[in-house]
Amino acid sequence: MDRFEYRDGRLWCEETPAATLAERFGTPLYVYSQDTLLTHYDRVQAAFAELDPLICYSIKCCQNIHLLRLLAQRGSGFDVVSGGELHRARLAGAEPSRIVFAGVGKTDQELTEALQAAVGWLNVESESEMEQLSRIAEALDLQPRAALRVNPDVDPKTHVYTTTGKRETKFGVDLERAAAVFQRYGLRAGQNMRGRVRLTGLHLHIGSPVNDPQPYAESIGRALELIRTLRGSGFMIDTLDVGGGFGAFYVGGEAPAASEYARVIVPLLKDQSLRVILEPGRSIAANAGILLTRVLHTKSSGARRFVIVDASMNELIRPALYDAYHFIWPAEAAGCSPVSRGVQQPHAGLTPSDVVGPICESGDFLAKARPLPGLRRGDLLAVFTAGAYAMTMASQYNSRPRAAEVLVAGAEARLVRRRETYDDLVRAELEPGAEAGA
Ligand code: LLP
Fold first, then answer.
1. What tens digit of pLDDT does each residue of 361-417 get?
2. pTM confidence score
3. Nearest atom (ligand 1) to Cα of 102
4. Has residue 435 been placed in a domain?
5. What is the DSSP string of 212-253?
6. Which amino acids are annotated catalytic?
7. What is the domain range of residue 116?
8. Pocket around ligand 1: residues whose beta carbon is below 6 Å from it?
């Protein structure tokens, strides 16, 4: 399904050999497949078509403007969580009314920018933020549309760091408090809207990745109950944003297809007179990208075999931060086809290897005890499922310039972000500008 495949032991991205890209653009290198990205977007769209939802691709997972532009042209809206992401969305040609601005803490400046850009929805996460938004909207004489993020207290059964919909996380407002927020800020039919934030929506996002549709059913069920109560009290509720969190293939096969999530979600939401918003990120971008990296050295220490590569936790922090699994295999492995895109089990001819980066921390690893074939300095490795939360979480730790990004369409490869230079690393320090009192 994804356009990264081995043919006679060589990895191809669409109609382009991965090794050619590494030679042409250097490593470490993020490689994206245009067809895979758009196919995953189309699948979400087709699966939920009956609801005619607004799909707001979540920029935080993969933010390259050139990729955002492709999605915008496909009709996608965007979920942004900062002024910087809003800036990107606009540069990519996004239609502002198809943008949702979310996040647990927004500055006055960010809210002002969002209101001036006339984004479609502001997702509000606390009473204090409702206060802040009302104040800024009044000063600008605007009536923005808002949705209250509620915490449905549902366990998405994912990593604790990316669990958001359980009680006592920092996100949203508990279901029981939501009614009080609407009492204070909600709108009743026929009420004068002048000078008011139009709080007419609810927002949910329970976690990421959620490899089971059932927690969605539970959280949407709870949100619908709340909507019935609120409507019963005369409040206008016209929007339900169900957030993101759909899974992707890291091991292979673990994520339900978009259609399986839809089978559970669509029946709940049809005929509810609600504008439905979805905020998928990972399920669209994760399998549309890989990270190419070259072996710098191999060595042994005690019983462990280390493969030291030129990518690191800077390029992909997920193994270090969440103990996440990413399939890794040589991009060119003559006579040695990948065992499978699955959890790599010990296998004849393979040696358990720690794939590590050059960063000065023991936490800097891409894989631990991973069965891999014999490797030599200069060999090229592919780290799969690196389209989401890889480049967007990249850092310059140890003063390492961030890697380049390449977008492949068939046999064409286009540099969509150049590799950073040493000058890029120090520019903001050498030109601190007036604010720093220089
Ligand atoms: N909407 C909201 C409000 C979110 O907080 C997120 C992700 C999304 C949508 C998109 O979720 P997705 O469809 O991509 O699962 N860095 C972590 C993931 C953090 C997710 C943060 N929020 C990782 O690498 O696994």
1. 999 999 999 999 999 999 999 999 999 999 999 999 999 999 999 999 999 999 999
2. 0.96
3. 3
4. no
5. -SHHHHHHHHHHHHHHHHHHHTTB---EEE----B---SSSS
6. 360
7. 34-280
8. 58, 60-61, 79, 102, 162, 205, 208-209, 243-246, 279-283, 318, 322, 389
